Amino acid sequence: MRETETPRAADLLEWYDRNARIMPWRVPPAARRAGTAPDPYRVWLSEVMLQQTTVAAVTAYFNRFTARWPGVADLAAAEDGDVMGEWAGLGYYARARNLLKCARAVVAEHGGTFPADHDALLKLPGIGPYTAAAISAIAFDLPRTVVDGNVERVMARLHDIHTPLPAAKPELTAAAAALTPERRAGDYAQAVMDLGATICTPRTPACGICPWRAPCAARARGTAAELPKKTPKKAKPIRLGIAYVAQRADGALLLERREDRGLLGGMLGWPGSEWAEEAPAPAPPLDADWQALPEEARHTFTHFHLRLMVQVAQVGMEAAPRRGAFLPPADFRPSDLPTVMRKVYDLSRGVLREMG
DNA sequence: CATACGTGGCT
DNA sequence: TAGCCAAGTAT
User: Fold this and answer.
1) Which of A147, A206, A343, A344 is least enclosed, having the fewest CB within 10 Å?
2) Where, if anywhere, are coiled coils annotated (predicted)?
């Protein structure tokens, strides 16, 4: 490769033409050139799922969502609980709540078609600067600059920027904007992200095979692996709680729908105590012969570790819970539970079988 | 600008 | 193992 002073979008696009990763929502570069445009609904859905989430984790969810709800109008007409259940396990559940709000807004305010307009996209629930730019570029080929974690890392290395994130964000955004081409904006956006995901990786980047190795300042100075700098994170405290798993004589399980805000908002879960650093006060959802499991459920969230004591009970058909409702076995899918609640269920299963 | 908000995989 | 990391958004 010829030595260059500044990186060129054309070099990256040439690499992308040969190395684009295959993903169910992606139109490969050859097809894109031939005139096949991506479905904005699928672009939007994939981008929301990909927020802070790996391609490997998203793929199965994307396939299930698009099989069940092929278009934005189908999703807009779905029951809230069905969408939350289908999202269970993917995390950041505000995304699912905003996904539904967004689908309904697209139907109600945009005639069921995603607007090909960056500012209009930005006004929709769950669509921020990154996602608005990604949909603009990938779905509509508008020359918007996409700035995600990959782009930040690639720009920090290309220009050997040592300012720690998030303070470096404006500088990195400006660097990314300066490189964005007018043509093939969608392919270019996906190319930078593929580069970050496969070559310009957080640890041990593969600089030797990078299409931008020649103009990369960090590679020249040997600082690539330590960029981007980040401000240190705070330690996670430990919170304690109690979860209550009640099984009725017909096998129905006592579950409740959590409020539509905050942690696990809108998701199905076991009734329980508050989660706090202090030992929790008991909060059984009904009076029964509760039995503590020998093992607690452990789970780590973004900002704290959780240790849940699990209490189980078998109750009669006359049981009248103060919270939640009994869900018959036919209506209960463990996969509808967020992971922490599924851990509680998995710990309880054996004991419930013995008791029942 | 800082914080809340999940999860699974990798080192 | 404990920590870091992933195609961020809302407040």
Assistant:
1) A206
2) none
**Separation of alpha carbons A116 and A292, rounded Å:** 55
Nucleotide closest in space to A92 (CA vs C1'): B6
Å from the A105 CA to the C11 C1': 21
- Specify the pTM: 0.97
Give the pLDDT of residue A354. Answer: 79
Nucleotide nearest to A341 (CA to C1'): B6
Mean pLDDT for chain A?
Answer: 96
CATH fit for domain A238-355, picks 1.20.1050.10, 3.40.50.2000, 3.90.79.10, 1.10.150.120: 3.90.79.10
Q: How far is A308 from A241, CA to CA, in rounded Å?
A: 5
Cα three-residue angle A154-A159-A163, rounded to 5 degrees: 90
Could you tell me the distance in Å between the CA of residue A295 and the C1' of nucleotide B6?
Answer: 22
A3 is catalytic: no
Query: If we measure between CA atoms, which residue out of A301, A304, A295 comes closest to residue A340?
Result: A301
Q: Can you say how many angstroms the Cα of residue A356 is from the centroid of all Cα atoms in its chain? A: 38
Say if residue A143 is preceded by a cis peptide, omega within 30 of 0. Answer: no
Question: What fold characterizes domain A9-226?
Answer: Endonuclease III; domain 1 (1.10.340)
Q: Which positions 23-82 on chain A have a beta carbon less than 7 angstroms from any atom of strand C?
A: 23, 26, 46-47, 50-55
pLDDT band at A6 (very low <50, low <70, confident <90, very high): confident
CA atom of A257 to C1′ atom of B1, Å: 34
